[in-house]
Design goal:
The complex is a heterodimer of chains A (about 400) and B (about 325). Chain A has helices at about 40-50, 90-100, 105-120, 135-150, 165-185, 195-200, 220-225, 230-235; strands at about 5-10, 15-25, 30-35, 55-60, 65, 75-80, 155-160, 185-190, 205-210, 210-215, 240-245, 250-255, 255-260, 275-280, 285, 300-310, 315-320, 335-340, 350-355, 360-365, 370-375, 390. Chain A is of the alpha+beta class and about 400 residues long. Chain A folds into 2 domains: about 5-230, Rossmann fold (3-Layer(aba) Sandwich); about 240-375, OB fold (Dihydrolipoamide Acetyltransferase, E2P), CATH 2.40.50. Chain A is built from 8 helices and 22 strands. By secondary structure, chain B is mainly α. Chain B has a single domain (about 90-315), classed as Orthogonal Bundle (MetI-like fold), CATH 1.10.3720. Chain B has helices at about 10-20, 20-55, 60-65, 80-90, 90-120, 130-140, 145-155, 180-200, 205-215, 220-230, 230-245, 250-255, 270-275, 285-310; strands at about 160, 165-170. In chain B, a hairpin with a 6-residue loop joins strand 1 (about 160) and strand 2. In chain B, helix 5 runs antiparallel to helix 11 (about 230-245), helix 8 (about 180-200) runs antiparallel to helix 11 and helix 11 runs antiparallel to helix 14 (about 285-310). The chains are: A alpha+beta (about 400), B mainly alpha (about 325). The interface between A and B is medium-sized, with 32 and 24 residues.
């Protein structure tokens, strides 16, 4: 059990910077998820904590030791790998006790610890099996047992569930949370699956292009994303974005205007190009918007494609003349995704009116991508309630 | 292809093979047996000849009165030849010499080639390709090119500065010792072993090595505890090739052992050749000794083959 502290960690390969000046400060016993798209540097960051990769610059502290130059074996870390990485030539017992045998534990102590670890991950009676005789989930348990048997200070998990099927993944997710509760060890968990990060982590660190975008508790990342990248990455399906500009009366987009008083927000100037973001669940058909404290004006739209998920329906709305142009991410400029109740009577090819929940509207600066405000008060109530402003930077910790 | 049929028997048969599955299978099977029998005869016949030669009494061989086709040396089989082999010279000592030289060389080669194979197979560094090419290029040099300087060095001559003649030190006299043979053997057989092991070690997934290192090994520890055991087939191949090559070696050892005597570390082939004296040649003893000398290698290959087949790496890793 220990704190982990990364200071100005940078990793450069010949012509690429994989990790760019990242600072992380993890509390003892914290479960932190590093998320980001492929190639964002999250695995490299973890390898630098493990000692498998040496940082080009910066230091790594585990507990009160500077471990930057120590080899992995002296860092007190244990790791679970994406490809599971059990030693194929050893049975389960030898796999789990590999680290103990290297450290010359006596037979009795080794047996006791292996038994305890295999109990925790429910592997009783399988200790003499070979890895190739086991299913994917069982192998993953062996890998986890191998990690916990040494009682390390820090657990590193590099997409440990990525190779499991969907059902098993959800099951192992809860098991990992239970394990974390039981062991109370600091866990660094790398994943590209934001659902895993949301459900398990105490805090999420969102990385993109080697840079830390935001580090906050899951719901803060969800409700108050610090920039466009985090807003788009966290949440599934992702947030609707609509580009527009600030006028004296408020926000103007190609398809609708929203009134608010730019003067109440510090970092907004008239004429500034901004991107408005709204999550699908914060878009309401007019009929069900009655309970909203601060709905926007009605926006006319045509329903396009419906995706019934069982517990909700995703409705693709076309704004304006109903001609959406698809952008690179497949989300059209004039398109708005709305999530509605499953027993809603919305049909395709229908003209409806929707409103947005003002308190859930996000504004980002289009050029820098930084968040400007979360929650857009209407001009009338602006005096009583200003939007929750964000700070200048999104990346500081 | 065409439907027009000719009348010749060969043409009909050819058409049949092309169009009829059954006929084609028969042809393939026949070809398979022909080729297999050919290889079996060419590899096993020399052994059969050796055996007949060994069992035929010397005077019949010299008189030319012996027949090959059946295992029936005129009169009775002279099984005593296999005992006489050890009476005339201490043949077991020659076998022992070759065995020791082969095992020591194999151990040295495997150890160094493992380290080199790890470096070439698993690490990235500038000049890796050029260095590998250099090692392979050296392995193409004819061994005879090294013979004179090595002999000069191993006979204990003083080492002097070229052209000036200033003596630096007296080199130890290594001829007639195993060192004089193991050193050149190791150098000669290293490149092949490095090449084989590099290929095998580079195929072990990085994740396994990382796992071992996080669990508490050094890079070297990961090499010996994980990478080498998982590359067992490759290691076995390199070991068997090196062992057999050294076991059969005669060129260097005949020169580094100044006299063809067991006490001077003359190898197996030297032993076989010593049944040939200035006046007589005991062909039946040479044949018997050859058979005895081959046996350890046959056993080794059979044992190692099981190892090679046993496929340790089967499917424990999801990639």
């Amino acid at each position: 059990m220990a704190q982990v502290k990364l200071e100005h960690i940078t990793k450069r390969y010949e012509d690429v910077t994989a990790v760019d000046d990242i600072n992380l400060d993890l509390q003892d016993g914290e479960f932190i998820c590093l998320v980001g798209p492929s190639g964002c540097g999250k695995s490299t960051t973890m390898e630098m904590v493990a000692g498998l990769t040496k940082p080009s610059e910066g230091t790594v502290h585990i507990g009160d030791r500077d471990v930057t130059t120590l080899p992995p074996k002296d860092r007190g870390v244990a790791m679970v790998f994406q490809n599971i990485a059990l030693f194929p030539h050893m049975d389960v017992y030898d796999n789990i006790s590999f680290g103990l045998q290297l450290r010359d534990y006596d037979k009795e102590e080794t047996d006791r610890r292996v038994e305890k670890a295999s109990d925790i991950v429910q592997l009783e009676g399988m200790l003499d099996r070979m890895p190739d005789e086991m299913s994917g989930g069982q192998r993953q348990r062996v890998a986890i047992a191998r990690a916990i048997v040494r009682e390390p200070d820090v657990f590193l998990m590099d997409e440990p569930l990525a190779n499991l099927d969907a059902k098993l993944r959800v099951h192992m997710r809860t098991e990992l949370q239970r394990l974390h509760k039981e062991l109370d060890t600091t866990i660094i968990y790398v994943t590209h699956d934001q659902a895993e990060a949301m459900t398990m982590a105490d805090r999420i660190a969102v990385l993109d292009a080697g840079e830390l975008q935001q580090i906050d508790p899951p719901l803060t990342c969800y409700n108050e994303p610090s920039n466009l990248f985090v807003a788009g990455f966290i949440g599934s399906p992702s947030m609707n974005f609509m580009s527009g500009s600030i006028t004296e009366s408020g926000l103007e987009t190609e398809y609708f205007d929203l009134d608010f008083d730019p003067a109440t927000v510090d970092s907004v100037a008239t004429g500034q190009n901004v991107t408005m973001g709204i999550r699908p669940e914060d878009v309401y058909p007019v009929e069900t918007a009655g309970a909203l404290p601060e709905p926007t004006k009605r926006i006319g739209a045509t329903t396009d494609v419906l995706e019934p998920m069982g517990d909700e329906i995703f409705v693709y709305l076309l704004l304006g003349d109903g001609e959406a142009s698809m952008d690179m991410e497949g989300r059209g400029a004039g398109q708005l995704l709305m999530s509605v109740d499953p027993d809603s009577d919305i049909r395709g090819e229908e003209t409806i009116e929707v409103v947005l929940d003002r308190s859930k509207i996000h504004l980002f600066d289009s050029s820098s991508g930084e968040a400007i405000l979360h929650g857009m008060p209407s001009r009338q109530v602006a005096g009583e309630r200003t939007g929750r402003e964000t700070g200048e930077t999104g990346g500081d910790v | 292809m065409s439907s027009e049929s000719s009348d010749g028997a060969l043409a009909r048969w050819t058409q049949g093979v092309i169009h009829d599955d059954e006929q084609r299978k028969r042809l393939y099977r026949a070809l398979f047996y022909i080729v297999t029998v050919f290889f079996l005869v060419t590899t096993l016949f020399p052994f059969y000849w050796l055996l007949v030669l060994a069992l035929t009494p010397s005077r019949l061989i010299l008189g030319g009165e012996w027949d090959l086709p059946l295992l029936r040396p005129q009169g009775q089989a002279n099984w005593a030849a296999f005992g006489d082999v050890f009476q005339q010279i201490p043949f077991h000592l020659y076998v022992f010499n070759s065995f020791v030289l082969a095992i020591v060389t194999t151990i040295i080669v495997l150890f160094i080639a493992s380290l080199a194979g790890y470096v070439f197979g698993r690490l990235e560094f500038p000049g890796r390709g050029a260095l590998m090419l250099g090692i392979l290029a050296i392995s193409y040099f004819p061994p005879a090119a090294f013979l004179v300087p090595l002999f000069d060095a191993f006979t204990g001559n003083a080492v002097a500065v070229p052209f000036l003649g200033v003596e630096l030190f007296q080199a130890p006299r290594l001829v007639n010792t195993p060192t004089a043979m193991v050193l050149p053997f190791s150098a000669l057989f290293l490149p092949l072993a490095i090449f084989i092991l590099t290929t095998f070690y580079s195929q072990i997934p990085d994740g396994l090595e990382d796992a071992a290192r996080v669990e508490g090994t050094t890079r070297l520890g990961a090499l010996f505890r994980v990478i080498i055991p998982l590359s067992a087939p490759g290691v076995a191949t390199a070991a068997v090739l090196t062992f057999i090559a050294v076991y059969n070696e005669y060129f260097f050892s005949s020169i580094m052992a100044l006299d063809n005597q067991a006490a001077q570390w003359s190898p197996l082939v030297g032993g076989i050749l010593s049944y040939q004296s200035q006046y007589t040649t005991d062909f039946h003893l040479m044949a018997a000794a050859s058979i005895i000398g081959v046996l350890p290698v046959v056993i080794l290959v059979v044992v190692a083959q099981e190892r090679i087949v046993s496929g340790l790496t089967a499917g424990a890793l999801k990639e």
